[in-house]
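Reply to dn_fold:

You asked what the input looked like. This is it:
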Amino acid sequence: MPDEGTLDQALAAVYRGKRILVTGHTGFKGGWLCLLLRKLGAEVAGIALHRPPQGPDFFHSVDLGELVDHRIADIRDARAYGEACKGLEPDLVFHLAAQALVRPSYADPVETFATNVTGTAIVLDAVRRMPSARGVVVVTSDKCYDNREWAWPYRETDALGGADPYSASKGCTELVAAAFRHSYFTDPAGCQIATARAGNVIGGGDMSLDRLLPDVVRATMAGTTVTIRNPASVRPWQHVLEPVTGYLMLGARLLGSDALHYAEAFNFGPSADGFIDVETLARRFQHAWGPGVAQIAFGKRPDDPHEAGMLTLDSSKARARLGWRPRLSTEDAVALTAEWYRTATRGHAAMRAFSEAQIAHYFNATADTQSFEGATAACA
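and this is what came back:
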């Protein structure tokens, strides 16, 4: 990446005018990625399932369909996905389309594996027929690891696994990406595949069912109490802009002359202050929201599925190789999240501008100036 002084300027120098395809752009993380790409000057096309409005979800709140070439297709259907790709000549593909929830994976494991495993194979197979493509970033999850419930953060060299259908499907997604990398994307000067494994992400616009902060927001809007099942479970919490920026930095490497050296897996997780339990995060969100926020109760039903009690990530590789580092403290991440939801639920009409202001705040953050300068230098 060229040295443009600040990280957002360096990213803009890479992505300005680039043609980017994002699968899963109607989702929470995909939506933030697309908005940031547009701010950086990229031309963005998105392919995803139709998503009806769900409260203050990100895609509809910011009218993202007006900013991207919005295409509807199911990645499980190779023919439909191929039709949706017609006319696209992307320089880079970010694959985020997925069944992204643990509990639904227990209810319908076949759909989960079909979407996350077969769907990924279909997306990568389509890239093989896109001569314009120079790189693919396949976004998986920290759940792809064989979770031993130990205290050490997981590194990219740790074993893949998964005791539940969702986690196992993410481990399989990594294997699919590796198989395509070694079988079809073998030209050192050709298109390369990297995978990105992020921790638990918070931020405005996530309205997925059975996620902690969206559940609190829904209960707040309804005037009800929210029940939390696993208050002691520890997760690597981070604001959505942290991993999304990491994806962009990784993608920039795939567009560079030494892309082959980055065709690997990278973790994107928070600093140690982000490794906190569910109850602590929920209490911080209540405090950040202020008066009127939903009350919290604790309880577990007999039919609740197993979920790991401890999961943390080691992002040393992304720090050393990409120059990426977290920029926000957990308190800042929670505050930005509460501010977005509070504003959206009170009928603020200009949520796109509000979200863009949060992006600007993120890149102007000075809580970790040394890391920020290191990231800028690494993009040079």
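The mean pLDDT is 93.
Hope that clears it up.
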